[in-house]
Structures are given as structure tokens and as C-alpha cells.
């Protein structure tokens, strides 16, 4: 599938930012009843579970919260830094590298986690599961030259 020309619009990051804010607001206020599933693209027919990822700005020190699709892998949680196939990694990617101890909200539960980038073998094992979860990840990968990073969020005590 060819990369949609609209992705190159300077408006795309702004649209993503504000849609994320709306989703986060609704998710927090309803414990995930609203905003707890992604129903866009391949998620329209097969809704995908969504969590809220908290992360600390590596430069600003400010707290941010964003909604992301996720996959359970035993005790771990898997997230993808796809940013819809845009050429650059999302800001939260760099923030997690700088401050990997964080929290996610799934439904009403707040879970302390430590984030790390999956190594090549882990990514190879997880990628087919992620495509089963949300087939559009395959499109996103084809639209960018970067290897889309996969994060493993491990439970913290």
C-alpha cells in the first residue's frame, strides 16, 4: 500500500496531538469505558484495547499522558511507537528512553511499569501478534523508512 500523501501535511502531528488529548480526557473520566478501545482503520471491525501511558518530558520534566494500543504478552504489556507511519519516532519514545519507570492506566487500574525497547528477536516474535491485534501496523511500517520500535512494559513492584 502506498503512503498516503496526507501524512506529509504539517497538520498531521497537530491532529494526532489533539485527538490524543480528547481520547485521554474521556478515558480518564470514564475509567476507559470511553476511549478504551480503538475503532479506526482495521480496528473498526475488530476494536483494539487502549491504555494511557504516562511519561515525563526528557527536557521539560512535565508529565504527559497519551492513549496507545496495547498487547498483553504474559505479565508484560507491549506498545508500538508507530505514530501512524510518520518518518520520526513519537516524542514519548525518547521520553521513555530517558525515564523508563512510568505508569500505565488500563481501565481504572494504574500499573507501575518499566519500559524497554524490544530487542530484534523479541520484536520478530511480537510483530505477528501485533499485526493480528491491529493489521494497520503493517501499513505504517511500509510507509516509513524507520524500523518502528516496539516497547515492552514490564511490571514494577
Short overview:
The protein has 157 residues and is an alpha+beta fold. The protein is built from 4 helices and 8 strands. Strands 1, 2, 3, 4, 5, 6, 7 and 8 form an 8-stranded antiparallel sheet that branches.
Question: How does this structure look, described?
Answer:
Helices cover 31% and strands 30% of the residues. It has helices spanning 11-30, 91-98, 120-133, 136-142; strands at residues 37-38, 48-56, 63-69, 71-73, 76-80, 101-106, 109-117, 150-155. Strands 1, 2, 3, 4, 5, 6, 7 and 8 form an 8-stranded antiparallel sheet that branches. Strand 4 (71-73) and strand 5 (76-80) form a beta hairpin. The radius of gyration is 15 Å and the shape is globular. The termini are far apart.
Q: Span from first to last CA?
A: 43 Å
Q: How would you sum up the major sheet?
A: 8 strands, antiparallel
Order of H and E elements: HEEEEEHEEHHE
Please tell me how large the radius of gyration is.
15 Å
Runs with pLDDT <50, length 5+?
A: none
As a percent range, the share of strand residues is: 25-35%
Number of strands: 8
**What's the helix count?**
4
Kindly state the percentage of residues in helix: 25-40%
- Quaternary organisation of the protein chains: single chain
Helix and strand composition category: alpha+beta
The overall average pLDDT, rounded, is 90
Amino acid at each position: 500500500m502506498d503512503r498516503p500523501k496526507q501524512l506529509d501535511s504539517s497538520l498531521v502531528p497537530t491532529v494526532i496531538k489533539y485527538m490524543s488529548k480528547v481520547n485521554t480526557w474521556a478515558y480518564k473520566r470514564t475509567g476507559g469505558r470511553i476511549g478504551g478501545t480503538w475503532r479506526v482503520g482495521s480496528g473498526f471491525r475488530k476494536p483494539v484495547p487502549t491504555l494511557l501511558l504516562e511519561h515525563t518530558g526528557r527536557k521539560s520534566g512535565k508529565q504527559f499522558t497519551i492513549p496507545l494500543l496495547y498487547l498483553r504478552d504474559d505479565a508484560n504489556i507491549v506498545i508500538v511507537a508507530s505514530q501512524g507511519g510518520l518518518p520520526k519516532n513519537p516524542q514519548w519514545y525518547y521520553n521513555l528512553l530517558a525515564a523508563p519507570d512510568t505508569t500505565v492506566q488500563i481501565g481504572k487500574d494504574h500499573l507501575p511499569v518499566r519500559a524497554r525497547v524490544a530487542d530484534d528477536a523479541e520484536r520478530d516474535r511480537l510483530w505477528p501478534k501485533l499485526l493480528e491485534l491491529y493489521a494497520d501496523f503493517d501499513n505504517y511500517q511500509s510507509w516509513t523508512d524507520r524500523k518502528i520500535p516496539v516497547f515492552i512494559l514490564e511490571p514494577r513492584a
